[in-house]
Amino acid sequence: MKKLLASAGIAASVTAVSAQAQNIEINANGSTPTRNADSSQFEGRVLLDGLTTKSSVASFGSGLVSFAPGARTAWHSHPAGQWLYVTAGKGWIQQQGQAVQEIKAGDAIWIPAGVKHWHGATDKTSMSHIGITPYHDGKNVTWMEQVSDTDYHKP
């Protein structure tokens, strides 16, 4: 009897979840055009490809960001953190007050909420990453000042 009740509970849970399920949403390749990054938020040649679907955009932003050599973000932070996955090339990332760190294809990076940082390509190589940035109170990024050439080239 206990086993039957446990099975009934599982079935009820599955039914409740199924009742709330939505359909899979696909954004076809090319449906979101590549765009140039905003020059107030990035330095150098940076291309953005949005990856967020209409249904997911309320929860998080995501995109493929491609940096030419020397290109980088401005200083910024994220109220709910950010996850980066480097898909190609080699780049740099820096948390304010710490040393620049090298990142390369295959690296996964977690940036905690509120941490001031920048990331981009090295001065000699391009770098692309996928960024996934959750929203908190309707916001997923706070942009700040540009990274100076002096800070960018610090060892």
Give an account of the 3D structure.
With 155 residues, the protein is mainly β. The chain has one domain: Jelly Rolls. 15% of the residues lie in helices and 37% in strands. The chain contains two helices and twelve strands; from the N terminus they run αββββββββββββα. The strands form three sheets. Strands 1, 3, 4, 7, 8, 9, 10 and 11 form an eight-stranded antiparallel β-sheet that branches. The longest helix has 19 residues. It is globular. The N terminus is likely disordered.
Key features of this structure:
155 residues; mainly beta; Jelly Rolls; eight-stranded antiparallel sheet; two-stranded antiparallel sheet; 12 strands; 15% helix; 37% strand
Topology diagram in text:
Blueprint: H1 2-20, E1 35-36, E2 42-43, E3 46-50, E4 60-67, E5 72-73, E6 76-77, E7 82-95, E8 101-104, E9 108-111, E10 117-121, E11 127-134, E12 142-143, H2 149-152
